[in-house]
Every structure is written in C-alpha cells, then in structure tokens.
TrEMBL record:
Record bears the keyword Transcription regulation: yes
Keywords linked to the UniProt accession: DNA-binding, Transcription, Transcription regulation
The protein, known as: HTH-type transcriptional regulator YdfH
Organism: Corynebacterium jeddahense
Boundaries of every HTH gntR-type domain copy: 1-67
Gene: ydfH
Family annotation (PROSITE patterns): HTH_GNTR
CDD domains attached to this UniProt entry: WHTH_GntR (cd07377)
Length: 213
C-alpha cells in the first residue's frame, strides 16, 4: 500500500511538470522527499515501469519515459475510449462544475498563467470521467495525466501557451451537453482527442528535427 501511495505521488509530480522526459529519478532524493525506504521506492518504481511511465536501465537507474509517436498515440487512444464514453453514459455528469472550470480556465488565460490552465484543464477531464463513478477509471486518468504531461512537456518548454486552445473544445462540449446532445458531445470529444494526438506528434517531430525554435 505504501509503495502504491508513493507511485501515485510521483505520477502527480509528473503531471505537474516537475520531471522532464528521459530524466533519471534520484532514489536518495525521492526516498527522503516521501519519507520511505529505498526498497519501498523501488517497489513504486516497479509499478511505474510496468505502466510504461519509467524505464529501468541496468547499472544506470530508473528514467522517465521519452515521448515517441507510439507513446502519444497510445495515450490519446486510451483517452478517446474512456472520456467520450463518460460523456455519453456517465449518470452523474456535473455540468455546473464543468462550466465553473471553463470560467477558471479563461481567467488563467487572461492572466497568462499556463500552469494554472493546465491544472484546470486536467480537472475538467477528471470531472467528465468522474461521472462514471468508477475509482478504477479515476486511477487510469491519473496515469494518463502523467503520460500526457510527458508527451507535451517538450512542446510546452518552447510554447508554454500551447494548451490554451483546448479551452475552445471544452466550452463546445459544455454547450452540447447543456443542449441535451450528449451523443454529439461524445463524438466531438473523441474526434478532438485523436486530432490532438496527431498535432502533438507533429510538433514533437518538428522539435526533434530542429524545426521549432
């Protein structure tokens, strides 16, 4: 249980952008940070490695994953499977909270607070998934948050405002749900998530080829 909690805390730290893709995870520093033994930390690393968030390299240590096209595609296909289903079938969709989050996102954009915008955007999608009332799906979304942050961090380092245009998608979703068109909202979100995947892959390839400053 303790290792599970530590792995969850590391995922959250990744989601907040505290670690970079390919970065080595320092056992001593993290064991001290979380107040656990190195054996417990290694158990947590093993969990993260099994999820694909980390890679253990013999005689070198544990490193965070580096986003590849396959990494991004897999992450967004998972989102495109579960989030649209929640929009369509979730019995407890909190539309008022989604509207509040969109308003908070607009304030974050006006204040050019991109870290806040990312946090609010993550919360929006968690509220969508929470409508299913499934802890398993909630845990899955925590994992996907970490995957997505790793996938977009190389882009955000060059363009911190990259995520801002996702607010248009979120606002359109709320409009459709309020109009009673949950099927349309579900289809729209699925289409947008798959399009975002292609956009992120294209940006990463440009960065890797030196085409983005």
């Amino acid at each position: 249980m303790l290792a599970h909690n530590v792995s969850a805390e590391i995922r959250r730290a990744i989601s907040r952008g505290e670690f970079a893709p390919g970065q080595k995870l320092n056992e001593v520093a993290l064991a001290e940070r979380f107040g656990v033994s190195r054996n417990t930390l290694r158990e947590a690393f093993a969990m993260l490695t099994s999820e694909g968030l980390c890679e253990r390299i013999p005689n070198r240590g544990v490193f965070l994953a580096t986003p590849s096209p396959e990494f991004v595609t897999d992450t967004f296909r998972a989102r495109a499977a579960i989030e649209p289903a929640a929009l369509l079938w979730g019995p407890d969709l909190d539309v008022d909270r989604l509207e509040e989050l969109n308003a908070e996102a607009r304030v974050a954009i006006e204040e050019e607070d991109d870290d806040l915008f990312i946090a609010v955007n993550q919360a929006f999608h968690h509220v969508v998934l929470a409508s299913m009332g499934s802890k398993t799906l909630g845990d899955t979304m925590d994992q996907l948050d970490a995957f997505m942050r790793l996938a977009t961090l190389p882009i955000l380092e060059r363009d911190p405002s990259f995520n801002r245009h996702f607010i248009d998608v979120n606002e359109r979703i709320v409009e459709m749900v309020k109009a009673g068109d949950r099927q349309g909202a579900s289809d729209y979100l699925q289409t947008q998530l798959l399009a975002q995947s292609e956009e992120i892959i294209e940006m990463i390839e440009k960065i890797n080829n030196g085409d983005v400053n």
